[in-house]
What does this fold into?
Amino acid sequence: MKAKLPLSRIAVVLSRTSHPGNIGAAARAMKTMGLRDLVLVAPRHAPGAEAVALAAGAADVLEQARVLPTLAEALADRALAFGFSARGRDLSHPARDWRAAAPEAIAATGEGLVALVFGNETSGLSNDELLSCQRLVSIPADPGYPSLNLAAAVQVACYELSLAASAFRVPQRAPRALATGAELERLHARLREALLGSGYLDPAEPGRLDERMRRLAARLALETEEVAILHGMIASLARRQ
Amino acid sequence: MKAKLPLSRIAVVLSRTSHPGNIGAAARAMKTMGLRDLVLVAPRHAPGAEAVALAAGAADVLEQARVLPTLAEALADRALAFGFSARGRDLSHPARDWRAAAPEAIAATGEGLVALVFGNETSGLSNDELLSCQRLVSIPADPGYPSLNLAAAVQVACYELSLAASAFRVPQRAPRALATGAELERLHARLREALLGSGYLDPAEPGRLDERMRRLAARLALETEEVAILHGMIASLARRQ
It folds into this structure.
């Protein structure tokens, strides 16, 4: 649980959002990555049925969202605010790649509260809004079509944060039991014996078959159980000859 | 343009998608990250007006999408297919973190065509579908609510790919012209002189003000132009005394 603590100190602030559906989808995106604190600054419409539908299992995040009239109020208790922009070139201070900046956001939670700030769907963050943020960041995208949907940008932003915080791991299956060198040698010997018996392999001119089979087996990284299955298949095929 | 080549050899395959809107949103997510090749396997509804609306500026990706009846046909020309699953623990082969696996997808484009495969919104990829994929991957998410929206998962997947391919960079502003040591020394001297003149600084007991100002200036990484502005402000305030 300790790894999740930084994420609880980071709010997602959506400023002047036009479409309530995007607010719901953003809530869902946040919750999948362990973030819960959503702040809505002057949304055009209060989140209603459409937002709840798109929030899916994250309706709780939506319900607990704070709605505030100005960005200044949303950032009043924040020590560090990251403004997300797709613009970059025409801005007064340089944008950083969000992947490079995300660890700073996690580290800053040890010193204060943090915000990620996203602007209106069409126009993005205004210059005034960007000036309220101490950091300006961008998600690298195709310059020919850099327009991520608002909730998609929130998804990528929160994904990077959760990875920077090492919050979650992909669930692992029980470790595989790899075959040992001795088991593989017995398999190669068994295959060779069967192929000599069937006439596929000419003992006078064995060629490079053994080499190729060994290369193939090396790529496979066979498990002990799989070696046993192959033994059985070779034995069965050899019996039918 | 060379960096984009690997992405042109990677298709996104959506299997048995229920909601056409998700297909459109996935097309948009792909295009923002430089991917264009969309394959739809047995979608419940052919993408219509709703899909086009959610594709926004990526209607071309949607128009060029191939619709195929089976996953086998979608993967027929693919050398390597990555199946995305949120399940993990109950699967027969181990899932890898997509961030760790994405470089393998990029490298594989040098040897053949690649696919990223996503299942139905509700049920994900079936066991049979997963068995058609050579690799099983997951996006790390909160185990309490791991359900990324389909298009959000496509967005994160394509984002990782484009970063693994170093396809796009955040546009950089012209490099800043940082102030030199000599410029900073002149600023500190000017401030000290002004504060002695105003009586804020007692020459008999200067305390640690100079030290604090130097630490502050070090954090600021002032630009030459900013030093000039500060000089002007100090001069103006000193004149008013």
Q: What stands out?
A: The mean pLDDT of chain B is 91.
